[in-house]
Design brief:
144 residues; TM2; mainly alpha
């Protein structure tokens, strides 16, 4: 596997350019955590399944809150208690998950950016191999 230290100056410039274009920002991720109940920060970091689960948990909490409001208007005590319990469970679960994400976010960003680095280095290694096999530079191969 190719390391950053093995790159030439031109390759290092390409690497830096690609990394800046694809890496995720911690500041943006934390801003999106403010909308954490919607799972925005997880969508941003391409963690789609857990983002969808957070979004569904928020929708469930909203539905149970609406049920609580409507059941209080109707006056059904059993429905009020059930909706309060269901709302509290979904809202507390979502709140705890967001607080945990507050501490997990730096690691998630580091893992995402590390994967981007490995992908870029892997592509550069592939281009080097192609260059060596053909005996010509990659730009001249692309022009043909």
């Amino acid at each position: 596997m190719l390391n950053k230290q093995d790159l030439s100056l031109n390759e290092l410039m390409v690497f830096s350019s690609e990394l800046k274009r694809n890496e995720k920002s911690a500041a943006i991720a934390y801003l999106m955590l403010l909308g954490g109940h919607l799972g925005l920060h997880r969508f941003y970091l391409k963690r789609k399944w857990t983002a969808v689960i957070q979004l569904l948990l928020f929708i469930m909490a909203s539905i149970f809150y609406l049920m609580m409001y409507l059941s209080s208007a109707i006056g059904s005590d059993g429905l009020i208690i059930a909706s309060i319990i269901l709302f509290a469970l979904s809202a507390i679960a979502l709140f705890i998950w967001i607080v945990v994400d507050l501490f997990l976010l730096p690691r998630m960003i580091k893992e995402f950016n590390g994967a981007i680095e490995r992908d870029i280095l892997s592509q550069m290694e592939h281009y080097r191999t192609m260059e060596q096999l053909s005996g010509r530079s990659v730009p001249s191969l692309i022009k043909e």
